[in-house]
């Protein structure tokens, strides 16, 4: 009897938490049920397309997650990354030959234009595809907030300047997040996105040879992982790819943080969260906490994704529902 009343108390607590999150969303102008009446098939359309793409290639879940991140950090979450043209964000250094999944977004949008023409923004399609990329990789089932408008301009210099680089120290990365309203905890939690996906050799091979005057290999990189990465990257053009989360490449779990404790982070910006001088004070303790508490990581990840998805468009007065994601109407 005691355990039954405990259970109902905890259900009430849980319901309270859910209500609280939805109130937060309403305050930001986005909501969970935005298209419930205007496009009731939205959820099943996104799920079907992301699921099919991930059956063909599991990595696509990761690629869609990253697409949302790279959209949100440049002029806010406004679908600006999808626009073609000479000033396109697609051509910026962090995105060129790197961001993937545009064709999946276009396929979802084409389905939506049949089911409910002119209703769902491309920015929302990106956010929703990211949600399913996470969920279908085994990650948390957070409630994606909807109601974004598509921006009218791409911002190539914004993409070059606002997105964090894997060569940046943790203090610089933290500043880039701060610039868009995200805190140090968000840096650590959202870096946990690297529990899935791949990186090209060109973005970490500086850790593998001629690292410094005293060390040929980055001393914060495990030596057996270093030799297998040297094998992988040797003699190539830098386009070969390695798992960001060695040993658990396609599963959305807290193994990424366990790897950091074992010096098995792939990017300098990953390992730096645990090992770098500026990471030791700011981020190390959280890495340790997530490495031993998977539930806490998955829950916090959903919360930080909602926060990232709330980064407002730079020009809130300009916005439309694009017919085609690659061009303004
Ligand atoms: C903290 C600063 C971050 C840095 C420096 C960074 C850097 C990178 C780099 C260099 C790659 C490999 C790109 C390539 O091979 O061309 C990558 C991949 C990836 N990033 Fe990040 N990232 C950061 C934060 C994030 C965040 C906040 C998310 C999402 C919430 C994210 C999600 C991903 C995913 C899922 C991949 C794999 C994509 C794929 O396999 O297609 N990253 N990141
Ligand atoms: C591009 O991004 C930068 C940095 O966020 C911003 O200052 C600038 O106003 C943006 N330009 C356009 C055209 O949106
Ligand atoms: C490392 O440096 C040496 C000496 O400068 C050079 O010969 C060698 O090619 C470099 N190796 C790599 C992988 O860059
Ligand atoms: C990688 O692939 C791209 C696209 O095919 C190519 O343009 C580039 O030269 C290749 N090499 C490097 C180091 O990026
Ligand atoms: C980290 O914290 C210690 C103790 O407060 C301080 O002495 C040190 O300067 C800090 N290091 C960095 C890189 O901020
Ligand atoms: C915002 O967009 C509107 C409509 O395109 C435009 O007239 C205005 O100049 C833009 N404002 C800024 C600050 O970019």
What do you see in this structure?
It is a single chain. The protein is mainly α and 329 residues long. The protein folds into two domains: 4-164 and 310-318, Peroxidase, domain 1; 184-302, Peroxidase, domain 2. The chain contains 14 helices and two strands. The protein has helices at 2-28, 42-56, 60-72, 102-115, 122-135, 156-162, 170-179, 184-191, 223-233, 255-261, 268-275, 277-282, 284-292, 294-309; strands spanning 198-200, 241-243. The chain has a two-stranded antiparallel ribbon. The radius of gyration is 20 Å and the shape is globular. The model is unreliable at 1-27 (pLDDT under 50). Bound molecules: protoporphyrin IX containing FE and 2-acetamido-2-deoxy-beta-D-glucopyranose (NAG) (5 copies). Protoporphyrin IX containing FE (HEM) binds at residues 59, 62-63, 65-66, 69, 98, 100, 164-166, 173, 187, 190-191, 193-194, 196-200, 203, 244, 267, 269. One 2-acetamido-2-deoxy-beta-D-glucopyranose (NAG) is lined by residues 75, 153, 155, 157-158, 161-162, 314.
């Amino acid at each position: 009897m005691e355990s039954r009343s405990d259970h109902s108390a905890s259900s009430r607590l849980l319901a309270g938490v859910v209500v609280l999150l939805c109130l937060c969303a309403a305050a930001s102008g986005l909501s969970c049920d935005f298209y419930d009446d205007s496009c009731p098939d939205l959820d099943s359309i996104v799920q079907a397309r992301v699921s099919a793409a991930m059956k063909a290639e599991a990595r696509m879940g990761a690629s869609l997650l990253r697409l949302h991140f790279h959209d949100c950090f440049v002029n806010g979450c406004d679908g600006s990354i999808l626009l073609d043209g000479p000033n396109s964000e697609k051509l910026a250094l962090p995105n060129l030959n790197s961001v993937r999944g545009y064709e999946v977004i276009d396929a979802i949008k084409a389905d939506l234009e049949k089911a409910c023409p002119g209703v769902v923004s491309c920015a929302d399609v990106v956010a929703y595809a990211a949600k399913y990329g996470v969920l279908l990789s085994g990650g948390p089932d957070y409630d994606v907030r909807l109601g974004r408008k598509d921006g009218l301009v791409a911002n190539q210099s914004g993409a070059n300047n606002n997105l964090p680089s894997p060569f940046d120290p943790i203090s610089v990365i933290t500043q880039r997040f701060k610039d868009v309203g995200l805190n140090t905890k968000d840096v650590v939690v959202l870096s946990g996105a690297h529990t899935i996906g791949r990186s090209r050799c060109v973005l970490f091979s500086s850790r593998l040879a001629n690292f410094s005057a005293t060390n040929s290999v980055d001393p914060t990189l495990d030596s057996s992982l270093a030799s297998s990465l040297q094998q992988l990257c040797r003699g190539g053009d830098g386009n070969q790819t390695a798992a960001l989360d060695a040993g658990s490449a396609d599963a959305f779990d807290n193994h990424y943080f366990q790897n950091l404790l074992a010096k098995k982070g792939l990017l300098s910006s990953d390992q730096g969260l645990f090992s770098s001088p500026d990471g030791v004070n700011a981020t190390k303790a959280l890495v340790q906490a997530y490495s031993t508490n998977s539930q806490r990581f998955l829950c916090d990840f959903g919360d930080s994704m909602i926060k990232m998805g709330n980064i407002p468009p730079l020009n809130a007065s300009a916005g439309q529902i694009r017919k085609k994601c690659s061009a303004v109407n």
